[in-house]
Amino acid sequence: MSSPSSSIESVLVENRVFEPSAATVAAARVSGMKAYEALCAEADKDPEAFWARLAKEHLAWHKPFTQTLDASDKPFYKWFQDGELNASHNCLDRHMGTPVENKTAIVFEADDGAVTRVTYKELLAKVSQFANALKARGVKTGDRVIIYMPMTIEGVVAMQACARIGATHSVVFGGFSAKALQERIQDAGAVAVVTANYQMRGGKELPLKAIVDEGIAMGGCESIKTVITLQRTPTACHMVAGRDITWAEAIAGQGTDCPPVFVGAEHPLFVLYTSGSTGKPKGVQHSTAGFLLWARLTMLWTFDLRPEDLFWCTADIGWITGHTYVAYGPLAAGATQLVFEGVPTYPHAGRFWQMIEKHKVSIFYTAPTAIRSLIKAAEGDEKVHPKNWNLDSLRLLGSVGEPINPEAWMWYFRNVGHERCPIVDTFWQTETGGHVITPLPGATPLVPGSCTLPLPGIDAAIVDEAGHDVPNGAGGILVIKKPWPSMIRTIWGDPERFKKSYFPPELKGYYLAGDGAVRSADRGYFRITGRIDDVLNVSGHRMGTMEIESALVAKTDMVAEAAVVGRPDDLTGEAIVAFVVLKRARPTGDEAKAIAKELRDWVGKEIGPIAKPKDIRFGDNLPKTRSGKIMRRLLRAVAKGEAITQDISTLENPAILEQLAQNN
Ligand code: PRX
C-alpha cells in the first residue's frame, strides 16, 4: 500500500471554502444543501423505493419492472431485472416529437478545426442506418463488437447502433497497441470490429486499421467475421477481401429506420477493459438500465444540465468518461454537446479556450492532467493563456480522473471560471459507471482538491482493514456499503475475479473502490489520496504495474526480472518507473540508455505508448525479502529519490538499494 500521509497533510491545511452564489443555488435543480440532504435522507430511509422512483421517472421502459433489487446472489446484484428497455431508444427515439427532436445533438470539431453538426433526428437516422448495416453483416443481439475509433460522430453512432440492436460494445482506446487489441478481441469473443483507416491527432495521421489487421493476424481472433472501416482521411488502407468493408459501403442501401431491440434491464450494454492489480486487464461489464439511469441523472444533478447548455466533456470514448459523459449521458438528457477529435495543444495550447469561445461552451469537463499541462503552457507563453479568449459562456467546470491539487484547482477556478463558475471535482471509476462522490453546483460549498460528498443513494465510507468506520481526519480505505444501480455487474467471463477484486470477505460485503481516502474533520468532506493497490494513474490513465511488468518480462531475450512502481509527477500525476534485471550484465552509460529505449518501445508495442516507463533503472537484482517477495515500498522510495528510513531488516540484499538509486 502506498502511504497517503503527504496528501492527508494537505487536506488538513486546506481551509479555503467557496460557497455557491445565491443565484446559482436559486437556479439549480438540486437547490441548496437542504435539498441535497433531503435526497440523501430519502435514499437512506428506503433505498429501493428511492431507486425505483428515479428509474420510473428517468427511463423510458418498454416493459415496466416489478422488482427493484434482487440481492439473492450477492455480490451479483440485479436491478430492475424484469423490466425491458433499449439504451439507444432512451437516448434518441424518446426525444422525437419533443423540442429536442430538431435540437443539435453533437457539434463535432475535427482536429483541423472543421465543424459538423447533427440534430437528434439526424443522429437517430444515422444510428438506425448503421444498426441496419451491423445486422446485414451478421451482428446479432448478444454479440460483442469491438470499437476502435477516433473521436468522431461515427464513434458515437457505432456505440449507439450496437445498443440499438442489443449487441454489447467494447470500445478500445485508439492509443492501445495491436497486442492489447488482440487480447480484448479474444477475451470478449467479439464478432466484429468497427474502426477507421486513420485518426487525426495534432495534425498527424495515425493508423488504426493497420493496427486492427496486425492484432487479428496475431491469431486467436477467428471469432471476428467482419471489420467495418470509416474512411476518416483520404489515405487508402489495406482491406481484406470478404472480411473488410468500408463504413460507406456498409451503410449504402440501408434504411434509416431500425426498430430498437428491447432487452432486459440487466442486458450487458458494454464491456470496458481497465487495469487491475494483476497482469490481465479486466472487462468491466455494465448493465443497460442501471448504467443509463445514472448517466442521465448525474447529467442533471452534477452538471445541473439546462436545455440551453453547450456541454463539453473532453474525454475519449475509449475511456469510461467518454462512455457515460459523451456517448450516453448527454444524449439521454437531451443535451447539445461538443465532440472534439484533436488534442489540447494543437495547433497551440490555447485550443481548448479558443473552442470554448467559438462554441460558447457552458459546461466544461476535463482532467487535471490537461489543466496542469495548460497551466504550464500558459505560464511559458502569454499568447496561450486563457485570458486571450472570451470565456463568459462558461457557467460550470468539472474535473475527473485523478486528484486535482489545490493549486491547479485555484488556477482553473480563477483563470477559466473567473471565480464565477463552480468546479465539480467528480470522483468515480470505470466500475462505478458514473459519479459517486462530487459536489453539486447549486448546493455544496467547495473546498479546492476535495471531491466533497457522496451523491444521494451512494453509501460511501472510509473504513480500516477490518471494515470498521474510521473517524473523520483519519485516513483509510474507500468503500461503498450498499449496492447502487450503475455499479459494475461482473468481470466479463471471470465472476470469481469480480468477487475477489471488489468484495473481499474482510470488508463485510462492501464494494472496495481500491482508493485510499480521508474525510475532513470539520465537514466530513472526502479527499481521495490515491490508489491503495498496484494501479497507477498516469495522466488520468489507469495502468496496472503488473501489466507493465508482464510486458517487460515478455521480452524474454533480454529481461530476467522487472518491478514497476509509480513516482509522483507534477504534470502527469504519477510517472512509471521500472526496475529491470537483464539476462546479461548490468549496462551503464550510453548502453543503458539504448537498452532503456528499446524496452520502452517494446512496452509501447505490447500495451500502448501510454504505458511506456518514464524512467528505467537497471540492477544486478531487486530488493527482496528472504522469502523472495519484491519489496515495492522500498522501490517506491528509491524511485522518489528518498533516503531509505524504512525498516529493511527483512531485506535479503540491502546493497542493491544504493545501486538502484543511481540513475545508471
Ligand atoms: O484513483 C481514482 C482516480 O481514477 C481511478 C479510476 O480510474 P478509471 O476507472 O480509469 O476512471 C477514471 C474516470 C472516472 C479512481 O480509482 N480518480 C478518478 N476521479 C478522481 C480520481 N481521484 C481523485 N479525484 C477524482 N475526482
Automatic annotation (TrEMBL):
EC number: 6.2.1.1
Residues the record lists as N6-acetyllysine modifications: K629
Binding annotation for ATP: G401, E402, P403, D425, T426, F427, W428, Q429, T430, D515, R531, R542
PTM field: Acetylated. Deacetylation by the SIR2-homolog deacetylase activates the enzyme.
Segments forming domain AMP-binding enzyme C-terminal: 547-629
Domain Acetyl-coenzyme A synthetase N-terminal: 36-91
One Pfam match: AMP-binding_C
Positions that bind CoA: R201, G202, G203, K204, T321, S539
Sequence intervals crossing the membrane: none
SUPFAM superfamilies per record: Acetyl-CoA synthetase-like (SSF56801)
Cofactors, names only: Mg(2+)
GO cellular component: cytosol
Reactions that this protein is recorded to catalyse: acetate + ATP + CoA = acetyl-CoA + AMP + diphosphate
Domain AMP-dependent synthetase/ligase stretches: 102-484
UniProt binding sites for Mg(2+): V553, V559
PANTHER family in UniProt: ACETYL-COENZYME A SYNTHETASE (PTHR24095), ACETYL-COENZYME A SYNTHETASE 1 (PTHR24095:SF14)
Family, similarity comment: Belongs to the ATP-dependent AMP-binding enzyme family.
Cited function: Catalyzes the conversion of acetate into acetyl-CoA (AcCoA), an essential intermediate at the junction of anabolic and catabolic pathways. AcsA undergoes a two-step reaction. In the first half reaction, AcsA combines acetate with ATP to form acetyl-adenylate (AcAMP) intermediate. In the second half reaction, it can then transfer the acetyl group from AcAMP to the sulfhydryl group of CoA, forming the product AcCoA.
Full protein name: Acetyl-coenzyme A synthetase
Gene: acs
